[in-house]
Every structure is written in C-alpha cells, then in structure tokens.
Amino acid sequence: MLYVLKMLGPADVEKMFGADKTDEDSPRERQPVVPTDVYAMSQSIINEYGHIFDNSKSRRILKGRKLLIASTDVHAHAITIIHELLSRAGIVIINLGAEINPDQIARAASSGSVEAILISTHNGMALEYAKRLKTELDRQKVDVPVVMGGILNQKVEDAALPVDVTTNLKELGFYPSPKLEGRFRKLLEHDVISKKK
After folding, report:
1. Whole-Å CA distances, 7 to 29, 34, 104
2. Domain ranges across the chain
3. pLDDT digits (tens, 9 = 90+) for 15-67
C-alpha cells in the first residue's frame, strides 16, 4: 500500500483523498485545511518571485516550453514552488515528484521531448546524483540542459561536513543554481534552454 501511495505521489494522493478545497490560486490548486509553516514559507517565496514569471516578457519567452522537474530526495518544497512559478509563465511541466532516481528522469526526458531538466537536491548527495544522472542521460541519448539547484554539496570521506560541488557540476555540463535569483533566472530569461535544440 505504501509503495502504491509513493508511486502516485503527494499531488495525486491529495487530489484523490484530500480534505482540502480546490483553489486555482494555491500551489497544486489546493487550499490546505491547516496550512503548515512550510506551506506559508512556500507561499512567501512564490509571492516574492512571482513577478519574474508572471509578466508578458516571461510568457512570451517561456509559454509552451516543456520542462521536466524532480527532486533527488523526499524534499518536495522546492519543486512545488518551481512548478507553481513556471506554470505562471505558461511552461508545460512534467513534475516527476520527490525521491526520483536518475534512470527515471532520463527515461521521462527521452520520451517526453523536454527542453530542459530542473533538479532539486537537499544535502550531501549532489555530485554522486549528478554523475549517475549524466550516465543515464548519455545512455538514453538525452542532450538537454540540466539545472541543478538546492544545497549543492557532497559528503566525502576525508571531510567531516559535505563540501561544495558547484565546480564539479559545471564540469559535468550541468548548470548549478543554488538560489532562485541566481543562474536559474538567467537561464529562463535567455535562450539557453533552446540552445541544444
């Protein structure tokens, strides 16, 4: 039963069984019965950055583009925000959800004609995950930009704490974007997404 619920993902479970009300202005178009602090934080970020996406220039550049988003771990907070913001600009989103393996991303990207892949990661696994994703994308012959955001570090043997791997991600050909106002915005405002098409 838990496996089935995990495969459905939280968005579909909420749609089918949620006690919350439908609300087109809320993330995932659902108004929570009891908003949590994480929900409030998500709304705050969406409100702060909404102007980047919810304007005629962004819609002109981005409307109809197809992007795949996923999270490397259980943290779905970032992809919920990104999904909401990108949708405002008219982007078609393939949201795989949280705890997605690199092979699942490569498979979805190869069959979905996406223009870019956006990955959120949390802590201590960014480089290992990126290497596995690069291998899978190469194996599936997927050649699209990959933006990786979140906490971009990796636990290594000789260090007590995870170390920053931003440079390593660039060497793999990925676009590191640890903050929404950073490289991610530049990628969206320019034609980097379509360069490989």
Report:
1. 20, 25, 12
2. 35-194
3. 666 666 777 666 566 666 666 787 788 888 889 888 888 889 888 888 999 99
